[in-house]
Amino acid sequence: MVDAALDSGAAAERFARMVAALGGPADLLEAPGRHLARAAVARPVFPDHDGVVAAVDARAIGIAVVALGGGRARASDTIDHAVGFTEMAGLGEAVGSHRPLAVVHARSAADAEAAGAALRAAVTVADAAPPSGNLIARRFGGVA
């Protein structure tokens, strides 16, 4: 059902209606550049060697985004919505000189370099894809 909603465009249409209903621009999906902030630096982050994404430390990536300014270390911090990572490679995806781990968006070249190093440290690239497992490791509190 999820694939069908994404492939047909129904999910994007629903999202656009929600954005407009919440007071956002009605043309956000058609013209995102008109409404969304852009970082001064956007560059791909390539792995140290070709391979397959075998593991991802999501917490470390989150900390890298906070260091860029895309999250809060304290409640009083402001969030820079222009920075972060896009086009992230997923588990089992081939990466290397042909495909970066992600694209980093930063306010400066130094910030982009630091975030890229943090991302490379957070992603394990192996020669082979990891074995597939359950997406849900366990349930808490009897919630189904």
Q: Can you offer a commentary on this structure?
A:
The chain is an alpha+beta fold. It has two domains: 1-36, no CATH class; 37-131, Aldehyde Oxidoreductase, domain 3 (Alpha-Beta Complex). It has five helices and six strands. It has helices at 2-8, 10-21, 32-35, 58-68, 109-122, and strands at 41-45, 51-56, 84-86, 94-95, 102-106, 123-126. Strands 1-5-3 form a three-stranded antiparallel β-sheet. Helix 4 (58-68) runs antiparallel to helix 5. The longest helix has 14 residues, at 109-122. The protein starts with a helix and ends in an 18-residue tail after the last strand.
Secondary-structure map:
Blueprint: H1 2-8, H2 10-21, H3 32-35, E1 41-45, E2 51-56, H4 58-68, E3 84-86, E4 94-95, E5 102-106, H5 109-122, E6 123-126
Antiparallel strand pairs: 1-5, 2-4, 2-6, 3-5
Helix pairs in contact: 4-5
Helix content: 25-40%
Tally of helical segments: 5
* Average pLDDT taken over every residue: 92
Helix/strand-derived category reads alpha+beta
CATH topology of the largest domain: Aldehyde Oxidoreductase, domain 3
The oligomeric state is single chain
Q: In CATH terms, what is the architecture of the largest domain?
A: Alpha-Beta Complex
Strand content range: 15-25%
Strand adjacency order, main sheet: 1-5-3
- Shape annotation: globular
Could you describe the largest sheet, including whether it forms a barrel? 3 strands, antiparallel
